[in-house]
Design goal:
This protein has helices at residues 3-9, 11-14, 16-21, 96-109, 162-182, 269-280, 305-315, 319-338, 365-378, 387-405, 435-444, 466-471, 485-502; strands at 29-40, 48-49, 56-57, 66-76, 79-89, 118-122, 185-186, 188-195, 200-201, 203-206, 211-213, 222-225, 232-239, 247-252, 286-291, 297-298, 346-359, 411-421, 424-428, 432-433, 449-453, 462-463. The chain is an alpha+beta fold. The chain folds into two domains: 3-359 and 410-502, no CATH class; 365-405, no CATH class. Strands 1, 4, 5, 6, 7, 17, 18, 19 and 21 form a nine-stranded mixed sheet that branches. Helix 6 (269-280) crosses helix 8. The radius of gyration is 23 Å and the shape is globular.
């Protein structure tokens, strides 16, 4: 038996003696039940597409957008121990108000589900509908995505407004949660760590110390890439029997942004990965994708570009298809690790929801004055601003509101979900979290394997490291996130602290 199989398949048996000794402190072990559901979240009309500074109106649906839900519950002779419902969406992000609205809708139809344990995340495709409406007026100063509203051109008829899409989305998500919850039945799960070369750090650093996202690496002043990448692929298999898995969670530490600038709707490389995985395993396979901590990562290479293009040409694959091929190979490796070894039909399961106050990135007096000037200059003629200038005006308006609000409340309350599934940990955050923070959490975690999942339950923008802020550039400015490096340190420490409590003897 390999070391990986020993850790994944035989963990409970191998620590039986230690568990008996510490039984008084060990979380309750219970029988596992789960259920799957999926639904289309593709709009039937053209929409504004989110993710760029300029307005894009969708011209076609290249491939469908999907929401997939997995409901998990454990119980014993005394009743329910704990529960969760994971939902993954082919969207750029999830708004906090959407998470709350879905919980309200589900509570009416599934009263036996603790709706606080519904966990909605996004794959961060930039070819999905925009989720902020330009007509919204009740935005909280720390609602980062409130700045990213796209105006619908007056000459464009038949376009679904973001507010209309949000109502459609929230109804669909509530339905998929309820359907997964009602579908739960006894089963088992197993997991393994695999790897795939997909993401690369996208911030180039130059001899003068400055950094640029997608910077030119052939520039003589190019020095190095700012940070590392995480090639981990976390794979969780869910079984009814030990033939084929009924479904799987696949966590890749890279946003779905291979075709991020297009004017069509697309799930990006996750559509290709789902297609290939179903061809490989079975047509009814449920696939729930997660995006691990990767705020400074991208599938777009800053070097080896010609060699990669030649490789794809030889394989007759598009960039999306090549990424999908690598994901399938990683899943295959994980499947070979766990297939034939014991799976968890009974396990310790605990789901904690933490609302952690993180210090906000303070807007300076100087930045406030600059933002106020831009806001005042444009507030009476916003319809005449170009799309990039309009976004800049909205960001400036947000900066003014943040400056005034930070004096009353200097904290952003981040909703974190921390789960123990046997020896596996899952932790979430609402940021585009730089990879360094994710690696620190995984390195300090007491679990055998730890999945760090970003863009969950809300979107508070990028959370960069101190060295990124020193280098500057997009994704490392106060414009690009509500919380700065200081808050990132608090996030890591709090996450690790809770994990240590959950995995104590």
């Amino acid at each position: 038996m390999s070391i990986a199989r020993f850790l994944v398949g035989g963990w409970l048996a191998t620590i039986c003696l230690g568990a008996c000794i510490a039984s008084a402190e060990t979380p309750r072990s219970g029988r596992l039940s789960f259920g799957w559901a999926s639904a289309s979240i593709t709009p039937e009309q053209p929409v504004a597409i989110g993710g760029q500074y300029h307005t894009r109106i969708s011209g076609q649906v290249h491939d469908p957008l999907t929401a997939t839900a997995l409901a998990i519950e454990t119980s014993d002779d005394h009743g329910v121990i704990d529960q969760t419902v994971f939902v993954s969406c082919d969207l750029s992000l999830v708004r906090g108000q959407t998470q709350q609205r879905v919980r309200e809708l589900v509570q009416r139809r599934a009263p036996d589900l603790d709706v606080n344990k519904i966990v909605i995340s996004a794959t961060h495709t930039h070819t999905a509908p925009a989720l902020t409406d330009a007509d919204e007026t009740d935005l909280h100063p720390y609602d980062f995505i409130g700045s990213w509203a796209y105006r619908i051109p007056a000459e464009q008829s038949g376009v679904m407004r973001p507010a209309q899409y949000l109502a459609f989305l929230e109804q669909r998500l509530s339905e998929v949660v309820v359907n997964a919850w009602k579908a739960r039945r006894p089963g088992s799960m197993s997991f393994a760590l695999s790897h795939a070369s997909i993401a690369r750090n996208r911030r180039a650093v130059y001899a003068d110390g400055t950094a640029r996202m997608y910077g030119n690496t052939s520039d003589p002043g190019f020095s190095h890439l700012e940070g590392v990448s995480d090639d981990s692929v976390d794979v969780l298999f869910f079984w009814r029997d030990r033939g084929q898995p009924e479904g799987m969670i696949v966590n890749v530490y890279c946003p779905a942004q291979e075709v991020e600038g297009e004017t069509y709707l697309s799930a990006d490389f996750w559509y290709d990965a789902r297609t290939r995985l179903r061809e490989k395993y079975h047509a009814d396979l449920q696939i729930l994708p997660w995006v691990g901590a990767s705020g400074d990562q991208s599938p777009h290479l800053l070097w080896n570009q010609q060699a990669e293009a030649a490789l794809r040409q030889q394989r007759k694959l598009s960039p999306r298809e090549e990424i999908a091929r690598r994901i399938v190979r990683a899943v295959d490796d994980a499947y070979e690790t766990v297939h034939g070894s014991d799976a968890f039909a009974e396990l310790s399961f605990e789901h904690r929801v933490e609302r952690v106050p993180l210090p906000v990135w303070q807007v300076s007096d100087e930045r406030y004055a600059q933002s106020l000037a831009i806001f005042e200059a444009g507030k009476h003629n916003t319809d005449q601003l170009s799309s990039p200038d309009y976004i800049n005006w909205r960001v400036s308006r947000t900066m003014v509101a943040r400056y005034e609000h930070q004096k009353q409340d200097p904290h952003f309350r981040a909703e974190l979900h921390l789960l123990r599934l046997g020896p596996l940990a899952v932790v979430t955050n609402p940021f585009e979290l730089y990879a360094d923070f994710g690696l620190r959490i995984k390195a300090r975690s007491p679990a055998v394997q730890t999945c760090v999942v970003q863009l969950t339950a809300d979107c508070a923008g990028y959370l960069p490291t101190e060295r990124a802020v020193q280098g500057g550039g997009y994704s490392a400015r106060i414009d690009d996130g509500v919380v700065g490096p200081e808050g990132g340190n608090v996030l890591v420490d709090r996450t690790v602290s809770v994990l240590q409590q959950m995995f104590s003897p």
